[in-house]
């Protein structure tokens, strides 16, 4: 996607034909609208539309627009891909477009996570917060450097504008003040005014973030009104007619509560907007993975012997994880029980949730070779579904438990992937 041109190529896999369009602004139609019109018309043909485009200046709004039109969108970091021709690496908009059009949805290519509007807003809020704090640090460093060039006492660490103002008033009465370059002394009030401005901006921005968090917290408090009777299942979790339906399956409600809990934590002023970890064991391990898959702000997941994974594994010659939905009496009591159950429990399969965890997050999974509840094969399916690179899979000779050395390894992984900063 260029500034004045959107190079667009379309690959029709059924016809085996590729078409290329050099889309520019027209009097009555922008290049962006022309792309959206093209995708909309292709979607109306009834075919699956996968759109691959290069990450860059346009951000995520084209992706959201394309998804609203019914397309499956994949944003790629084009600098990590190579367009090869005649043994040389060549990069032009047209070649990029044709290369991207030649990608198939089943190809394993690096993609960029597409955040929701709320998630992107939080990112911008964090960037602005960091920008203002960096500006405060920069001005402090400049003033410290200036004072070090004088015989004045100075400071060794960053100070608030109020502390600097008090110091200037005190130092101006010292005999050393007259030994300072006059133009240097004239710079100090300018820097002080700049520091005061940034501190005011930081306080205002903190209030803005707090109002946003309060709004999100208010939405969370409405959750119980929107989801009545979530715990109404008669037989707890899996051997009940309710388990055969997505809307009434117990674990759907359980994972919803995990998600709402994370949203509540994010609404608290104590959250640093940098670290959000979920840790659990067995059914709690499943909730940890689900939490990571549902909330993109999660930065670290530690799941020990997680249950609720790879529910259809027994049809592929493997053991499925607890609670082994397809083996329940309620499934066998109905002619189409297995099909109904599988359709329902796909929504609570941790292998799918693992695939949704933010690739920038970290994932730790432990398993026991003799575990008959959360089989190693089902945990491997979850682990391999995760798209990120920062991950660790620990296999030990044990049953459905956490040996001390595994617990220690999980805590060490959590610590190594937590960014603690002093405010």
Distance between the termini: 40 Å
Shape type: globular
Q: Which spans have pLDDT < 50 for at least 5 consecutive residues?
A: 83-87, 223-235
Strand order of the largest sheet: 7-8-9-10
Count all strands and give the number: 10
Structural class from helices and strands?
alpha/beta
**Count of helix runs:** 14
The average pLDDT value, as a whole number, equals 83
Q: Which range does the strand content fall in?
A: 5-15%
Descriptive keywords:
four-stranded parallel β-sheet, 423 residues, globular, 12% strand, 14 helices
Textual characterization of the structure:
- α4 (117-148) runs antiparallel to α6 (182-221) and α5 packs antiparallel against α6.
- β9, α13 and β10 (391-396) form a beta-alpha-beta unit.
- This protein has helices at residues 31-44, 61-68, 93-101, 117-148, 161-171, 182-221, 223-226, 250-267, 283-294, 329-332, 337-345, 350-356, 376-385, 404-416, and strands at residues 6-12, 17-23, 50-54, 72-76, 84-85, 88-89, 277-281, 300-304, 362-368, 391-396.
- With 423 residues, the protein is α/β, with parallel strands linked by helices.
- The chain contains 14 helices and ten strands.
- Strands 7-8-9-10 form a four-stranded parallel β-sheet, sandwiched between helices.
- The model is unreliable at 83-87 and 223-235 (pLDDT under 50).
- 26% of the residues are buried.
């Amino acid at each position: 996607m260029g500034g004045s041109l959107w190079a667009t190529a379309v690959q029709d896999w059924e016809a085996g034909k590729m078409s290329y369009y050099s889309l520019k602004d027209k009097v009555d139609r922008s290049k962006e609208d022309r792309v959206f019109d093209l995708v909309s018309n292709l979607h109306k043909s009834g075919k699956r539309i996968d759109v691959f485009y290069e990450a860059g200046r346009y951000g995520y709004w084209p992706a959201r627009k394309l998804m609203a039109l019914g397309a499956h969108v994949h944003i790629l970091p084009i600098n990590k891909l190579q367009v090869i021709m005649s043994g040389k690496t060549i990069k032009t908009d047209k070649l990029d477009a044709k290369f991207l059009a030649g990608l198939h949805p089943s190809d394993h290519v690096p993609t960029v996570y597409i955040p929701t509007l709320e998630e992107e807003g939080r990112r911008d809020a964090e960037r602005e917060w960091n920008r203002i704090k960096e500006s405060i640090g920069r001005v402090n460093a400049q003033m410290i450097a200036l004072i070090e060039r004088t015989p004045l006492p100075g400071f060794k660490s960053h100070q608030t504008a109020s502390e600097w103002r008090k110091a200037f008033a005190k130092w101006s009465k010292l005999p050393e003040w007259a030994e300072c370059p006059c133009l240097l002394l004239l710079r100090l009030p300018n820097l002080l005014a700049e520091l005061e401005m940034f501190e005011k901006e930081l306080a205002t921005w903190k209030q803005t973030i707090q109002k946003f968090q309060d709004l999100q917290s208010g939405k969370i408090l409405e959750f119980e009104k929107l989801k009545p009777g979530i715990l109404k299942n008669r037989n707890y979790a899996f051997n009940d007619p309710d388990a055969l339906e997505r809307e009434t399956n117990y674990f759907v409600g359980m994972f919803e509560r995990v998600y709402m809990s994370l949203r509540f934590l994010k609404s608290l002023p104590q959250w640093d907007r940098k670290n959000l970890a979920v840790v659990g064991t067995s059914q709690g391990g499943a909730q940890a993975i689900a939490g990571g898959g549902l909330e993109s702000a999660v930065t670290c997941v530690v799941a020990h012997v997680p249950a609720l994974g790879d529910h259809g594994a027994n049809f592929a010659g493997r053991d499925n994880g607890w609670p082994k939905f397809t083996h329940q009496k309620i499934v066998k009591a109905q002619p189409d029980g297995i099909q109904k159950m599988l359709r329902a429990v796909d929504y609570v399969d941790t292998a799918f949730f693992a695939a949704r965890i933010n690739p920038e997050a970290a994932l730790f999974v432990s398993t026991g070779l003799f575990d008959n509840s959360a089989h190693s094969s089902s945990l491997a399916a979850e682990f391999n579904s995760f798209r990120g690179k920062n991950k660790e899979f620990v296999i030990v000779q044990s049953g459905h438990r956490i040996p001390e050395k595994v617990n220690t390894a999980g805590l060490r992984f959590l610590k190594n992937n937590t960014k603690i900063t002093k405010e």
